[in-house]
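Today's session is about reading a structure prediction critically. Students often jump straight to the picture, but the first step is always the sequence itself: look for stretches that repeat, for charged clusters, for runs of hydrophobic residues. Only then move on to the predicted structure, which in these notes is written as discrete structure tokens rather than atom positions. Here is the chain we will use throughout the hour.
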Amino acid sequence: MTDSPQLISVRCNHCGAPLEVAPSARFVTCAHCGSQLEVKQTGSAVYTEVLGEINERTERIERDVQEIKRQNAIEALDREWEARRQSLMVRSKDGSMSEPSAVGGAIGGVIAVIVGIAWMVGTASAGAPAFFPLFGLLFIGAGIFGAISQLGGASSYAEAEGDYRRRREDLLRRPNDAQR
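Below is the predicted structure for this chain, in token form.
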């Protein structure tokens, strides 16, 4: 005659039905209600816990952690953009900062070119020495260079801002996509 393992009596945590389980059992399915249970053993007590409830809590915690990670990613992206934005801003002579403007750069360039042309025409018609009208070329060159620089800065700013807005929108949409 062989000794059969001693069984432990526990109750289903879902329906309360009595269950007999082996001392080494970690999981059991209730024959009465079909709930999947985890068998918990402490020093003096043996009880069951419904696995579905554990899974639900675990999934809820996982969703909360994902939301915190998403919020942290948005905050990091916002800080990164603000630092990048500051580096792309244009500082005026009085120290104020503004976004680079393609229109402002174009207007400034056109004005400098007009001043350069007017300088060349005015000094040449006044009979100034030959090198004097050439200073107008400096105005024209500076105007063209300034306009190109401003247009490039405005383009870089617009591109960086567009990238930031796309990435932020992707992060904001992320939880909705996961719940579908």
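Discussion point for the tutorial: The radius of gyration is 38 Å.
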